[in-house]
Amino acid sequence: MADLDPEVVLGMTAQAPDGVVIIDREGLIRYWNHGSERIFGFPAAEVMGRSLDVIIPERHQQRHWDGFEKSMASGTTKYGDDDLLTVPAVGAGGRKLSIEFSVVLLNDAEGQPGYVGAVIRDVTERRAKEKELYQKVAAAKAEQATTA
């Protein structure tokens, strides 16, 4: 990859259909790509410099920030390369979403943990279909149990 122009990489990241979000050590949004705009419905200009709370449901904020602060202080995260997290999120207008994402700690200019980056995918539709299927299976099992 040494011969690849960094501008090409940045361009790919900017246009990726998946969300790419980077927050600083204060939890403020510093990068928000086209995919993030598509997923969450917020234009980059509206969220840049704002807290990530804009997409975190209120009931999950304390847990998120506790883990975030621990990771920034230790310079490590409990999530590895193979971990794909699934959480609820909030889009523009309060729209409820289900997202999957991977997360990485990014060092600042001094080599210290200064940022957290995430690659995000909207799985709201898939999760709704899974929930519907689970409900149908549960109903069928319940019906079977009453007729047995």
From TrEMBL:
Signal peptide: none
Coiled coil: none
Domain PAC: 83-135
A Pfam family annotated for this UniProt entry: PAS_4
InterPro entries cross-referenced by the UniProt entry: Biofilm_reg_signaling, PAS, PAS-assoc_C, PAS-like_dom_sf, PAS_4
Residues of the PAS domain: 16-58
Superkingdom, taxonomy of origin: Bacteria
NCBIfam families: sensory_box (TIGR00229)
Listed name of the protein: PAS domain S-box-containing protein
Organism expressing this protein natively: Actinacidiphila glaucinigra
Taxonomic placement: Bacteria, Bacillati, Actinomycetota, Actinomycetes, Kitasatosporales
